[in-house]
Fold this protein.
Amino acid sequence: MGANEQLKPCPFCGGRAILKVNHGFNKEVISAFVYCEKCGANTRSYALERTANEAWNRRTNNDR
């Protein structure tokens, strides 16, 4: 699994998932998280894009 891996639909509403990456002054990744554009469900912030993607894709509707 990598940062470019396709995100699964939201496990709660089926909405489209979006990866949000925050960059620092030197364009390094400071944090990354995934959220649903429809219902707002989200992961916590991670240091790596790949980790945020993996966390989102492992979620089930029991992970509220």
Observations:
- The beta strands are 17-23, 29-36.
